[in-house]
Design a protein that fits this description.
six-stranded mixed sheet, about 30% helix, about 25% strand
Length: about 270
């Protein structure tokens, strides 16, 4: 019998104001062992989709299933055991020590009114090591750069040990070296059996790391497929406009897509 997807969205609809839908009937599946990249222009609903998938928002219509169960029937601990999130908004926790913040990712595994165990603390340290964040574990989050905070948020999500991992623009504040390290780590997680969803604007990291790509436009799915199938002029130009340059990586043949300044007709 085939296992259900780790995470599934069925016909999701959502709007922050009556009559103004941000998402319009979005379907999505995330299975164990895969990396799914979600693309789309600003305001198309990518972060709203993440908030719906992790239970921070409730859909106006449709459903989110975690391991085949309706997320609305699960309590906070069971949801957290199923899905971990690295959010785009990294504010609001400036005074919290890094190690304590990462240890908070163990919430679904620590019984109520109990202190974290030696195993919980070991998982926290291992997650900090994996994200190259152990060197500032004794600082507070407010003492870190945006890129360092991004790595700490990823460490917290890894410490949570949830099978589905949602990363909302996880490389936006990182230098190129740490960008590839984070996505190498995402690839390792998928190879170990997790399902990883990455929201990004970076089309070329998508080309190199995505097993499957979902393109959103105007709150709906505009295209879905492999990177080679989605990162094409006829698919991207109606969504992003004409000012794009298309090529291929010489060693792999994977697509390259760059913003094109000046006169795009030249």
């Amino acid at each position: 019998m085939t296992a259900p997807p780790l995470l599934e969205a069925r016909g999701l609809r959502f709007g922050y104001e009556p009559g103004q839908e941000v998402l319009r009937g979005v379907d999505l599946t995330l299975r164990a062992g895969e990396i799914l990249f979600v693309l789309g222009p600003n305001g198309c609903g990518k972060t709203t989709l993440v908030h719906l998938l992790c239970g921070c928002l409730e859909p106006a219509a449709g459903a989110v299933l975690l391991g085949g169960e309706d997320a609305r029937a699960l309590d906070a601990r069971r949801c957290a055991r199923a899905v971990a999130v690295v959010p785009q908004d990294l504010d609001g926790v400036a005074g919290v020590p890094v190690e304590r913040f990462v240890l908070g990712g163990r919430f679904p595994h620590v019984p109520a009114w109990r202190s974290p165990s030696a195993h919980d603390r070991a998982q926290c340290r291992a997650a900090l090591e994996r994200t190259d964040a152990a060197g500032f574990a004794a600082r507070t989050l407010g003492q870190l750069s945006a890129g360092q905070r991004q790595r700490v948020h990823l460490a917290r999500a890894l410490a949570q040990e949830s099978p589905a991992l949602l990363l909302d623009e996880p490389t936006s504040a990182l230098d190129p070296g740490h960008q590839v390290e984070v996505l190498d780590l995402a690839r390792e997680q998928a190879a170990a059996g997790s399902g990883v969803l990455v929201v990004t604007h970076d089309l070329n990291l998508t080309s190199q790391y995505a097993q499957r790509v979902l393109l959103l436009a105007d709150g709906a799915v505009a295209a879905e497929g492999t990177a080679a199938e989605v990162l094409r002029p006829e698919t991207l130009r109606p969504v992003y406009g004409e000012r794009l340059w298309f090529g291929t990586f010489p060693d792999s043949g994977r697509p390259i897509v760059l913003p094109r300044g000046g006169d795009a007709s030249e």
